[in-house]
Amino acid sequence: MVKSALIAGAGVAGPTTAYWLAKHGWDVTVIERAGDLRLGGQNIDITDAARDIVEQMGIETAIKDKHTGEKGLMFVDTDNVSKAEFPTQSKGSLTREIEILRGDLVKIIVDATPESVSYRFDTTIKALDHKEDGVGVTFDDDTTEEFDIVIAADGMNSRTRPMILGEGDYTDYLGVWSSYFTVPRIEADNDWWRWYTSPSGVIAFLRPDNKGTMRASVNFQTDDNDPPHMTLEDKKDRLRARLSGAGWECDRLAKALDDVEDIFLGPLHQIKADSWSHGRSVLVGDAAYCPTPYTGMGTTIAIIGSYILANELATHDDHAAVFAAYEEKFRAFAKQAQKLPPGVPDAAYANSMFKVKLVNSGAALAASTPVQSVLSLFGGGDEEKSNDFDLPQYETARSA
User: Fold this and answer.
1) Is residue 102 a contact partner of residue 42, using CB atoms and an 8 Å limit?
2) Which of 63, 326, 351, 378 has the fewest CB within 10 Å, making it most exposed?
3) How many other CB atoms sit within 10 Å of the CB of residue 103?
4) What Cα–Cα distance (Å) separates residue 400 from each residue in 24, 65, 301, 305, 316?
């Protein structure tokens, strides 16, 4: 008998899970509350065993073909003068071997999923009825269906998580808001990730993409960790207020907001739950263990976690044993991936020119030839090729 799964969320984790389940012959439905795939977003990277997974999926070449062309990380001052540079292959660079726009990656994974996978947009879950032999799902239009398994892959702010785990405090607020939006490229832009630290408590980024535009990010510290719903104009107003007088390209970014039609803006939380499942329902990706962009591991652990969950489901009949194996094999690595670098995020933000100079001087020291030489000496080889996670191997999935 063919088993069925409902997956909430069509980001990275949802379609990756759908890919592997469908390859094993499952009947898979993916729902997404947006009207279409969300193809915006910032540069993301794929590291560790996630590289092996995308290779097994046959999409590694397609991903590399969509490389953003980013040359590395550059710390700049308000005059756009470079204070420290970390080329792609240097120690401390946050630009990786596989660097791709989030939207491009989502499109590649979705296109790779077997035709048997059904995608439904403008759809959310209203309620779950946990049963012994399945899960009853009530959708937002009040229609109902039953599935063998329900999987929440709907991100850091998952609406499905409390329906599975119950109401609880699963979030660890980092004291920071982040934003992402796209702005026109101008002649003065280059192919480096430019990091600007303002004495007004703002960190702003400009990063190249492969579409002839630039990806902007504005980040700031605040105690406000639970904002009310914000309209697009609310988001623009809040960003303009933080960009005002911040220096560098911040006036340009504020003006560019006039024509921006899509903005991610909100508080950054790490998601930490004692369990990732209840009954026949389970969490994966950011909904289960969001590490935030500060770790650089979000996409990697979403891909690995999805691979393990789907293949365990396809290999064993007992869902309780499956979910236990999923956590046993992956929880330690997911927890490790959530570890923040020392002093992050507080050490990166500045409220004076003295602190800005400390940040840029520290970056310059880390980028210097003597320090890079020492780091390379103790690096133990090419870290882009090595895996910290020992990827479980499963029987070859059949084509769907």
Assistant:
1) yes
2) 378
3) 18
4) 7, 26, 25, 21, 19
Rounded Cα distance between 334 and 80, Å, is: 37
Question: Do residues 62 and 39 lie in contact, with contact meaning Cβ atoms separated by under 8 Å?
Answer: no
Tally Cβ neighbours within 10 Å of residue 212: 8
Residue 382 has a pLDDT of 45
If DSSP codes are grouped into helix, strand and coil, which group holds residue 264? strand
CB atoms within 10 A of CB 132: 6
Residue type, 228: P
In which residue ranges of the chain is pLDDT below 50?
Answer: 375, 378-383, 398-400
- Cβ-based neighbour number of residue 91 at 10 Å: 16
pTM here is: 0.92
Whole-number mean pLDDT of the chain?
92
Give the C-alpha separation, 18 to 110, whole Å.
9
pLDDT tens string 299-333: 999 999 999 999 999 999 999 999 999 999 999 99
- Using one digit for the tens of pLDDT, what is the confidence trace for 245-281? 999 999 999 999 999 998 999 999 999 999 999 999 9
Q: What are the DSSP calls for 304-373, one per residue?
A: HHHHHHHHHHHH-S-HHHHHHHHHHHHHHHHHHHTPPPTTTTGGG--SSHHHHHHHHHHHHHHHSHHHHH
Beta-strand runs (E) in the chain = 4-8, 27-32, 43-45, 72-76, 82-87, 99-101, 118-121, 125-130, 135-139, 144-147, 149-152, 171-184, 193-197, 202-208, 213-221, 264-271, 277-278, 281-283
Note the maximum CA span of the chain. Answer: 67
Q: Is there a contact between 27 and 120 (Cβ–Cβ < 8 Å)?
A: no
Radius of gyration, alpha carbons of the chain: 21
Token readout for 27 is 């009947």
Q: Can you say whether the dihedral through the CA atoms of 297, 300, 302, 304 is positive or negative?
A: negative
DSSP lists the bridge partners of residue 125 as: 139
Residue (of 101, 257, 246, 122) closest to 179 by Cα position = 257
> Nearest to residue 282, comparing CAs of 96, 77, 5?
5
Strand pairing report for 171-184 and 135-139: unpaired
